[in-house]
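Hey, I'm writing a tutorial for new members on how sequence and structure tokens pair up, and I'd like a real worked example in the thread rather than a made-up one. If someone can provide the structure for the chain below, I'll link this post from the tutorial.
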Amino acid sequence: MLRTFEIDPWKIVTHKLDKENKRLQESMTSIGNGYMGMRGMFEEDYSADTYSGIYIGGVWFPDKTVVGWWKNGYPKYFGKVINAVNFDKVNVWLNEEKMDLAKTPIKDFELSLNMKNGILTRKFTVVEKGAEVRFTIRRFVSVAEKELFDVDYQIENLGDQSVSVKIVSEINADVFNEDSNYDEKFWNVKAKDQTPDSGYLIAETKPNNYGTPQFTVGMEMTHKSELKAIEEAVDDQKVANTFSGSLDAQQTTNFEKRVIVVTSRDYDDDATLKAAMQNLSQKLGASNHQKLVDDQTNGWAQRWEKADVQVSGDDAAQQGIRFNLFQLFSTFYGEDKRLNIGPKGFTGEKYGGATYWDTEGFAIPLYLSLADKKVSENLLEYRHNQLAGAFHNAREQGLKGALYPMVTFNGIENHNEWEITFEEIHRNGTIAYAIYNYTRYTGDETYLKTKGIDVLTAISRFWADRVHWSKRKGVYMIHGVTGPNEYENNVNNNWYTNMLAQWTLKYTLESLKKVSSEKLNELDVSAEEKHHWQEIIDKMYLPEDKQLGIFVQNDCFLDKDLKPVTSIPKDQLPINQHWSWDKILRSPYIKQADVLQGIWYFIDRFPEDVKKRNFDFYEPLTVHESSLSASVHAILAADLHYEDKAVEMYERTARLDLDNYNNDTVDGLHITSMTGSWLAIVQGFAGMRVTNNKLSFKPFVPKKWTSYQFRINFRGRLIKVQVDKDGTQISLLKGDPLTVELNQQPLKLKGGD
């Protein structure tokens, strides 16, 4: 655990330029607006260790997969988000000395991300050769105008002598990815031009051999400054504008850079892309800086009004939940149904930046409650639109039906680790579960009956082909898989995978009874096929130990040396950074909830004693080295009245990145798992459930807290829940009257209650 930022309910703030943990600071101060985003690197050159990254939603490249030996069906490429053309670059010279914060002497440093409005601020004073100049630098990507990036410099001469100032603002295509096979660069400049105080550059991703799209981006920068614009020559990879002047003693000047970013995802050709870019620049050029800031502030205020979770009595807990919600909404707010939620969002390149099963498993429950239901429907439709890719993935393995990818941009599996790519087939179950979860929460079966059933049927056909019949035991089994616990590969009969396969087949059969005759004809599910599915349901092998009273994670799990995590020397944690892969695979240690993940999905279907025995057995063996782990354990612990454990797990999921629990936040934030802090509060501490069409709560207040409150959308209503030491108040803020359950007692909600 490493805490590099101060505790503040609404800010991520530090007064230390931490050169040893610069990358960590950059990850934590990432900003975005769903369309694009960037890490918290400096605009100016920084000659020490740094990780610069700007990313644009839906823009990616198929990097060649390097395979050491023959494997049929192996993905041909590893799809990855690529570092965009660098449009935020600004370099500063004072008295003809180039500023480099790795070397330039400074004092009074402050780095602050305001989560209320999404504005990142840097303050520092340069003290060099008798000069003393104060900088205040603010930047944001606009939630009001998605294509807009803005950075504003306030430069104040605190000394008693004049200071010469030169600023060079660039758009530079000479960038590389941290995460590429051969330090490849991905951008070719197609066109560029500049005037003394503006410039644009259009670049295209380099050709690829896999038939995936090339992307074109256009970026135009304009400036507002009292400094004089000077023409200077530039190279083939960039456009640059230079501004210079002199600051008298105690004088202040401002320099503002605006960049419009457009892509070929929205425009068919270079001519329309260029025209749109220039029209947007012109349109926004009429607005002063304060207007842009006000629009940004108002946009975030609207988001917080719906989604804010207020915690009293524990500022660290408050900061954690707000930080996670801020970064989630910076990554995805549902405006573009072509996009999904990458595990690192706009904060880094690790994992390729593509869509994982995390979205369906962890993100949809949050968006169902905090956004219009159309947002969640768009996330489901994203998968329906990629059904053809899922069919392709199954065929690559010689199987029927659809295998949804572990990692994708276009529906085609494009991860480069076999045990993840084609052993973690449990994600198919979560894709099906998301349809069920959406339908259960909204009460709307329209999607299920029209598009969802396509997905369910295709997934069921995969499961029916992937299982095999054991003559010896007279049951259906699934061998050669990796469950959610990625610290066990190629195991047989992972309980979670088998259970989800069984459940999916059952849910599909039930859902087929609800669709139209026309849809049934289209799906062409024969009576023989249905009979086979039912036989699998009835005879699916689910490993269980009657003596221990637990579901067994996989066939060989109980044969391991079952020592708790507390037996591992602390200097060997996290084990993924200290142990060989062989040692990890042989160990009993669980990366994240596996059996417990399945129990969480269907939490109300298991008796309390069953939940307790499984939790008590598996949690002590769990190292929580997946960002997805702690939230599941928090919810189950709360359900079992293990309140101290629930709070411990909440703190871990809420402050996973803020406190760098797993020592890996330098690579970027764990965006999809940031839903965990909200889930831990709402499904854990507040005990929210939707069972048999009824919304219910069983709240408690953590000992360190005095109260908490949140809002949720539920079937056209906006509901406010307030919990303190004296009890719980539930209010209907919008929508028709509703009866909910509070501590197993009915509570009628009316407007104004």
